[in-house]
Amino acid sequence: MAEGPELREPDSDGSSEELVLTPAQLLRSLEQAWLNEKFAPELLESKSEIVECVMEQLDHMESNLKRAKHGDLKVSIHRMEIERIRYVLSSYLRCRLVKIEKFFPHVLEKEKSRAEGEPSVLSPEEFAFAKEYMANTETYLKNVALKHMPPNLQKVDLLRLVPKPNLDSFVFLRVQERQENILVEPETDEQREYVIDLEEGSQHLIRYKTIAPLVASGAVQLI
To answer: What does the alpha-carbon distance between residue 123 and residue 127 come to, in Å, rounded to a whole number?
Structure first.
């Protein structure tokens, strides 16, 4: 990969600064985003800048291969690495599209109610896809079923009909940064809330909504 891909990271005041990553750091960021997206029950924040940087680096690697000597063993090794990165990238984007199709009314509602300065869960392309998917779903329901029903039943609330992501599901995680005083909700009425510390490098099975903010901040990694 080429050196010095740049990402813009938002500051606390809403501005952004350029963060220079090495190729290895960029790939690690993509893999972390992929695993988190794969195992989280909800759609996570869009990592479109990471995707764009990885695609640029893949183009650069392809260009380098074209200039390499034919028959060189390094060419085969680099080609395998390119295919591996493309697989991770494609799988990450597919995971997101599956969630958008599954939870589209809730994803769009969350985007609609997003506060100013709050990061978007959708890239511009994903937002356009979600809106088109919802419009097509409404048109299909209307043409196939709703128009044949009594007038008082011809409206449908997709927010009520489409299930929400199950934030109470349990996930495995690895702790990247030590966390203290994490409040854990009781599993039964007989139990009480309790507090735990998450040691760096430790692994846990825990309810997703308990650690969702830690996934967003990068303090824990879903596995």
So the answer is: 6
Helix axis angle, 73-112 relative to 48-67, nearest 10°?
Answer: 160
Q: Please tell me the total number of residues recorded for the chain in this structure.
A: 223
The yes-or-no verdict on residue 14 having pLDDT over 50 is no
State CA 15 to chain mean position distance: 22
SS3 sequence of 192-209: CCEEEEECCCCEEEEEHH
pLDDT digits (tens, 9 = 90+) for 38-75: 999 999 999 999 999 999 999 998 888 888 777 777 88
Among positive and negative, which fits the CA dihedral 173, 177, 178, 179?
negative
Q: What is the pTM of this model?
A: 0.85
DSSP reduced 3-state for 174: strand
Nearest-CA neighbor of 174 among 1, 5, 31, 25?
A: 31
Q: Which two tokens stand for residue 210?
A: 């308990």
Report, as an integer, the average pLDDT of 195-212: 94
